[in-house]
Amino acid sequence: MSSHSSAVVRAANLGKTVLGPEGELRILDGLELDILPGEAVSIRGASGSGKSTLLGLLAGLDEASEGEVFLLGEALSRLDEDGRAALRAGRVGFVFQSFQLITGMTAQENVMLPLELGGIDDAADRAALLLDRVGLVSRRSHYPAQLSGGEQQRVAIARAFAVGPRILFADEPTGNLDTDTGRRIADVLLGLRAETGTALVLVTHDQPLAERCERRYRLVAGRLEAA
Questions:
Q1: From CA 6, how far away is CA 76, in angstroms rounded?
Q2: Residues 6+ apart with CB under 8 A from 9
Q3: Are 155 and 134 in contact (CB under 8 A)?
């Protein structure tokens, strides 16, 4: 592993236990991970292995049972929910399997939203440029319901990169898409990541997509193994 101090995300002895029907269930156990600036890291694993749980912990969307996550140098256990949200603002992007676009907003308005929340003046121009980069500038006035799944995910990717994040968390970004569309989405996501130098943490069941990342892991019995 590389030096801890430069990592954009670091998990140290990370553990997560939840209560299930049979009692306590240990999902993550003593997990260690460093992700450096600009690195693309993929995490695969069987359904229910805890991939999305791990992503939520690394991004500060969920709290660990043991150990610590350092996000952009900050120990997440020392921050409350508002503090974690403030840390992520303008520095962390997300892409989800379910797109999570706002249905009452056009494609351009969806991409503009994080820019406007960040007080960026030329939000409309920036959003249009990003939509052009993902091949959707001609669809910028369309609402999510008027777009295909692949188009919605491209809007979501443009929105995730809008604020120039230092790190992007992607949870099954091709999970709801057919193989060809998923491959095109992967091209867009990895292309933008390469252009911007944003670190990428990618949870996926898609082996060809995972193999396009520089470092690859499998989540097995609560720990990461090199894949």
A1: 16
A2: 33, 34, 35, 58, 69, 70, 71, 72, 167, 199, 201
A3: yes
d(CA 107, CA 206): 27
Pairing of strands 23-35, 9-20: antiparallel
Gyration radius of the chain over CA positions: 17
At residue 218, what is the residue type?
R
How many CB atoms sit inside 10 A of residue 15's CB? Answer: 17
Q: What is the C-alpha end-to-end distance of the chain, expressed in Å?
A: 15
| Whether 135 contacts 150, CB under 8 Å | no
pTM over 0.85? The answer is: yes
The average confidence (pLDDT) of the chain is 93
The pLDDT of 187-192, averaged and rounded, is 94
Beta-strand ranges (E) seen in 134-210 are 167-171, 199-203
Identify the CA nearest to 7 among candidates 42, 35, 43, 31: 35
Please name the residue that has the structure tokens 């995300």.
9
Dist. CA 156–CA 154, nearest whole Å: 5
Dump pLDDT digits (tens) for 95-143.
998 889 999 999 999 999 999 888 888 999 999 999 999 999 999 999 9
Residue 174's nearest CA partner among 199, 201, 203, 194 is: 203
